[in-house]
Amino acid sequence: MIYLDNNATTRVAPEVFNAMQPYLTEIFGNPSSTHTLGRQMKQAIDVAREQVAALIGAADTSEIVFTSCGSESDNWAIRGALSAKPDKKHIVTTQVEHEAVRNLCDLLESEGYEITRLGVSENGELDLNSLRDALRHDTALVSIMLANNETGVLFPMEEIGRIVSEKSDAFFHVDGVQAVGKIPIDLKSTEVDMFALSGHKLHAPQGIGALYLRQGIGLQPLIVGGGQESGRRAGTSAVPNIVGLGAACKLANESDVHERIASLRDKLERQILTTISNTLVNGTSAAGKRLPNTSNISFQYVDGQNILLHLDAAGICVSTGSACHSTTREASPTLKAMNVPYTAAQGSIRFSLGRYNTEAEIDRTLSVLPGIIKKLAEMSPY
Ligand code: PLP
């Protein structure tokens, strides 16, 4: 199986599995217990917190709170920020956020909040003047992702943070789920207040996430109960998963695989564009403005879902736009916001590479793809 769907989820790294294993077998106490096993569990959480803090450049380990996933982190950050500023009812976000932010903003709109959804250019980039214009005295929160899950386009988090803090007293929340482990991040040198991440995007298991909360920001908990995570997130800590997230962050911090991944991605992209007609890349090609692993390519006039199924039959896993859209025929909101024409949006495929991909796998993909596209183009109703 050739797995080119690493933005959907990643396989658990052997280093991560090995780190977790003792906590699924012989070390099994509740970290809130004061006996020896409990203390061992607590120590393991402390180490993982340091590992997460190190990867994202937090100033202090107390800024990391473990959650169950990226969606929980996003939801908590947004709900928490709003309840900390009850008199302010305006939110600034973008049209291209992941559902975890986008659907919550839609819900908040129905609850009486006013939402400004910033658009993007045809390359998927944000116009910072539109952000400047959108900020108001009653803006409670700015929620803007760091890396887009469908196109890999990066938004300039540092600059956005400066603008938000100069022009408003709003909180700045960043959905960093797709960026962590793929590009260097140093939150202490930014104006970011809250930053969401998710383990399964960087070779930790599914079901573990974290929220970075800048020192001094006290958010009302989303999950109320026991005093875990210093009273900020109730629920018995998922120690094996937390250990796994820590090990995944350590792995990402220690091994530089991004150049290799980027060169494989570039080869895949270049050859598709030169050997298959009617293809285009969705998202900027400017250096440093896109994740090194992601390539969203439109095979115009061909149905993306059919491409996915044919690739799957050839043992190659990709995704159409975002995994979450795989059951609908509608173009994704991200591609719509980029004004990608319907016939191109329908034929869009996201290739997202990872640390385990080899050149032979890319060559194999490049060898089967032209035949699939030729066959589907002949059957195309367009
Ligand atoms: N934000 C982004 C940008 C994502 O890509 C995802 C998952 O695809 C999420 C949030 C949600 O993360 P999780 O699956 O851990 O809830």
Give the number of domains.
Answer: 2
Low-confidence stretches: 322-326
N- and C-termini, Cα separation = 32 Å
CATH architecture level-2 label of the largest domain: 3-Layer(aba) Sandwich
Bound molecules: pyridoxal-5'-phosphate
Q: What is the radius of gyration computed over CA atoms, rounded to a whole number of angstroms?
A: 21 Å
Return the average pLDDT rounded to an integer.
Answer: 96
Class per helix and strand makeup: alpha/beta
Characterise this structure:
About 1% of the residues have low confidence. The protein is α/β, with parallel strands linked by helices and 382 residues long. The strands form three sheets. It has a seven-stranded mixed beta sheet with strand order 2-8-7-6-5-3-4, sandwiched between helices. Strands 9-10-12 form a three-stranded antiparallel beta sheet. It has a two-stranded parallel ribbon with strand order 1-11. Helices cover 41% and strands 14% of the residues. The chain starts with a strand and ends with a helix. The chain is globular, with a radius of gyration of 21 Å. The longest helix is centred in the first third of the chain and has 21 residues. It contains 13 helices and twelve strands. α2 packs parallel to α8, α9 packs parallel to α13 and α10 crosses α13. It folds into two domains: 241 residues, 3-Layer(aba) Sandwich (Aspartate Aminotransferase, domain 2); 123 residues, Alpha-Beta Complex (Aspartate Aminotransferase, domain 1). Pyridoxal-5'-phosphate binds next to α3.
Chain-wise SSE layout:
Blueprint: E1 2-3, H1 14-24, H2 36-56, E2 64-67, H3 70-84, E3 90-94, H4 99-110, E4 114-118, H5 128-134, E5 139-143, H6 157-167, E6 171-175, E7 194-198, E8 209-213, H7 228-231, H8 239-254, H9 258-275, E9 279-281, E10 294-299, H10 304-313, E11 316-317, H11 333-337, H12 342-345, E12 348-352, H13 359-379
Parallel strand pairs: 1-11, 3-4, 3-5, 5-6, 6-7
Antiparallel strand pairs: 2-8, 7-8, 9-10, 10-12
Bound molecules: pyridoxal-5'-phosphate.
Pyridoxal-5'-phosphate binds next to helix 3.
